[in-house]
Design a protein that fits this description.
By secondary structure, this protein is mostly helical. The protein is built from seven helices and no strands.
Amino acid sequence: MPMPADISDAELLAYLDEGLSVERMVVVENGLRQSAELRARAVALREKQDSQGHSVGEIWRLGRLTCPTRHQLGSFLLGALPKNLEDYYRFHLTTVGCRFCSANLEDLKRAADQASSETATRRQKFFQSSAGYLRQSDRDK
């Protein structure tokens, strides 16, 4: 178990803003559950942050201004982006580990898989319903 000293103030604030990677979120959450001292530090940091207002950096992070839109993530998924944007989105997803964009991308993947499955089913039904008409028109010739 991480000790309260092993978790920095910056990590606590990032945890409160849901800005850590999933793995680090688990570590901090477990630390908070097991340490009253760490919980008190988190409360004090949040109160201090709220009383001081927000910096440009905090507004930038909270507004998720570096996150691509859902449309842009869809283009990324399709491989339809310029190389520099594709590299940035990959960095944002893998290195930065943005949980919001990762969840959005996973949702897009599920939707694409579901649409693909539904399209295949629909094509099969069209083929099956048309097969009898095709055989009948062959007999009419």
